[in-house]
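=== RUN LOG ===
request id: a7f3
mode: sequence -> structure
chains: 1
length: 253
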Amino acid sequence: MAELGRGSLSKMKAHLDAPVQYAFRLGDEEVPVNPLVGKSLRLEYLGAIHCTHCGRKTKTSFSQGYCYPCMQKLAQCDVCIMSPEKCRYDAGTCREPSWGEQFCMTDHIVYLANSSGVKVGITRASQVPTRWIDQGATQALPILRVATRQQSGFVEDLLRTRVADKTNWRALLKGDAAPVDLPAIREQLFDSCGAGIAELQQRFGLQAIQPLNDARCWTSATRSRPTRRRSPASIWTSSRWPKVLCSVSRAST
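=== RESULT ===
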């Protein structure tokens, strides 16, 4: 097989186009994925795992690709990454206040997305629509602009009492979810959670949590699906997916 590249494997790159263009990231090298669809491909683990932050060689990766020391000290590995409402910046105990100012103390979008069904989520305003592409959404709708990550976490925590906050990857692989009326679902959420949203606005200020009543619904192109489905965990037999050193090869034609 002809080798297309080798290096430390990072999150796949996605570029908004029609259709979306994907690429493997192997160190500083990128291997376009779209031309490989329908062809035989082999990913080979070369026996090394490197921290996604410091590059240190490690036996096991933690928190999606970090060595243990980095996992223990970096703000991007703290509990608030999975639970934004637990942010400790205002309490003065953030692991890296400068990192928090750049990534957490900035505008976030609370959105509805349709991938395996309707879900609520949050992302930095700068990550729209990348976040939706990463999740495999076919529809998405920004519903609130919020001043900080922590505040968006409080809003998400409120809304997920009414709608899911996770994607069912098994359902996602079976095919595109049926189209839904996201603006109508937004209005239903605003009606059912209006009192809770008002309480958060009173706590943080009206300007901190702003409804996006005029936002447009985003849609993506329809994608083809694999006929054979495998769990992501069955592709790699350990937690070594992030930053593993590997090579990508394609059968010669």
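=== NOTES ===
Residues 2-59+238-250 form one domain.
Helices lie at 68-73, 97-103, 130-134, 149-159, 169-174, 182-192, 194-204, 232-235.
=== END ===
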